[in-house]
Amino acid sequence: MKIKLLFALLFVFFLVPTVSGDWVYQESPNSSNYSCCATSPLNVYDTDWSNYALGRTSIGAGVSTRWYLNYTIPTRTVRINYLYKHGKSPSSFILNISGDSSCMNNNSFDVKLFSYHKADGTDICYTSVSCWNGTDYTELYRYTKVANFCSFERRIYEEAVWWFIELPDPPACIDDLGSPAINFFITIAVMFIILASIFPSLVKNLRFMIVFGLIVVFGGLVIWLLQRLGSGIC
Fold first, then answer.
1. Distance CA 203, CA 201 (A)
2. Rounded to an integer, what distance in angstroms lies between the CA atom of residue 99 and that of residue 95?
3. pLDDT (tens digit, 9 = 90+) per residue, 11-61?
4. Where are the domains of the chain?
5. 161 band by pLDDT with thresholds 50, 70 and 90
6. CB environment 141-164: b (16+ within 10 A), e (fewer)
7. CA diameter of the chain
8. What predicted TM-score, i.e. pTM, was given to this entire model?
9. What burial class does residue 11 get, using C-beta atoms within 10 Å of its C-beta: 0-12 exposed, 13-18 middle, 19+ buried?
10. In a 3-state reduction of DSSP, which class is residue 144?
11. Distance of CA 82 to the CA centre of its chain
């Protein structure tokens, strides 16, 4: 029984495709906009991870600061990770935030960074990261602090993006182990082993063996011809 299960798992392994790709780093947004009120606001995307923008503070109503950043999504991107560095007493730290798939709209990844601070006896400050889903902003991260002093929390240092880009399909070659013809023969061989282990009497049946062999040869030839006609010889 264990052997049959092993063969079944091998069969699934050959039939289920896996996504292969590479992580690609992008330091700066393709376009950006800033809306009140911070000291040195451009430091947020100046590529220097030691510089920071400092959100302003106010007694009473508080002050909100917003950055709007646009990234053009590369072709074949299947996943996004967003890097964000902000202050957190007594220093700072870098976050690796998973981008929401709903924000991968129209080949654009639009991010809003938000910083808020109010000094009114007890300081209230928070920072957040959101992305545009086509209708509204989806919040990906928020950090809030209520304390007597929020100097570090008002610091927004830097941001960047990691794209996970799926690799293009390799050209179909008759001598390529990843080609359709080779995969066909591997799949048939695994199927034969599974059938032989479950129904050993079939292997002894001459008529079955002849029919099975003809299916393998005919199917392999058809795929091989289509491959050569469609993709040429590598």
1. 5
2. 12
3. 444 444 455 778 999 999 999 988 877 888 888 988 999 889 887 776 666
4. 2-18+171-231, 21-166
5. very high
6. eebebeeeebebbbbbbbbbbebb
7. 92
8. 0.63
9. middle
10. strand
11. 10
